[in-house]
Design brief:
This protein is mainly beta. The longest helix has 25 residues.
């Protein structure tokens, strides 16, 4: 009788272990993917296994937040997601700020501010035959967006096709919108570029080590012809990350030299 009891006890214990393993094997897992797409350059993807972005980004920065469930038990599950994006303070003693909350499994947002951002993903799930939701573990991901910079570093150029200083360039980083106007000495507008930065910055632009771009804004031509030598004037109005405003003015000296 005692032997039969031990056999039954061992059998029940083995069955409990098998049920536990089966339940564990069928527990759904969540896959999280945050795709960060700058206005120039390749997208960076953060996942469960890659939670920190090494690069500094420019504003505007397009972000796509996506989550999905997978399970090997053949059951159908419902996923509920909460994305909380927090702006981390520069001062460690200060509190974080809840910058954005979203509740969709897949959602998108364009960041036009600068700073260090923490994405906190929280989720729960339920078997569609059950009324009860089970909480999953939190996942945290981080990325940074640089402060804006706009500079007019040059005061002249020589549009003579000799391959040296043939175009006028300006420097910008984390700029959301820009309006560039160039005038001749009589105040006539001879060049204007205006719009969001993604429409102004060349698609093949490469950021420098500080995350900024030195890019062409004028080839020295008006109505298809290179302008005469002389002094011209540029006015750059821009909106940077966090809404910072710029209104820069400068003379441009055009000197064709021995070229055209």
């Amino acid at each position: 009788m005692k032997r039969d009891f031990h056999v039954r006890f061992i059998s029940l214990a083995f069955a409990a272990i098998m049920l536990s393993v089966k339940a564990f094997a069928g527990t759904p897992t969540v896959q999280v993917q945050v795709t960060l797409t700058p206005i120039s350059g390749d997208p960076v993807v953060l996942t469960n296994d890659n939670t920190d972005a090494d690069d500094e980004f420019n504003a505007p920065l397009h972000a796509r937040f996506a989550s999905s469930l997978s399970s090997d038990d053949g059951r159908e599950y419902e996923l509920r997601s909460q994305w909380t994006i927090r702006l981390l303070p520069g001062d460690e003693s200060a509190d974080t700020i809840d910058y954005l909350k979203r509740y969709e499994n897949v959602t998108e947002y364009e960041f036009t501010d600068y700073g260090s951002f923490l994405v906190v993903y929280e989720w729960s799930y339920r078997d569609k035959d059950s009324a009860n939701f089970v909480l999953g573990n939190k996942l945290k991901l981080k990325f940074n967006i640089d402060e804006s910079v706009v500079r007019l570093d040059y005061n002249g150029f020589s549009p003579n096709d000799d391959g040296i200083n043939d175009v006028f360039k300006i420097y910008a980083r984390s700029v959301v919108r820009m309006n560039i106007s160039i005038f001749n000495r009589w105040g006539q507008l001879i060049k204007n570029i205006s719009g969001p930065m993604e429409s102004i910055l060349p698609s093949d632009a490469v950021a420098d080590e500080n995350g900024g771009y030195l890019f062409e804004v004028w080839d020295g031509k008006h109505n298809g012809r290179v302008v005469n030598d002389g002094v011209y004037y540029i006015n750059v109005q821009a909106t940077g990350a966090g809404g910072k405003k710029y209104d820069l003015k400068k003379d441009i000296n055009v000197l064709k030299g021995q070229g055209n």
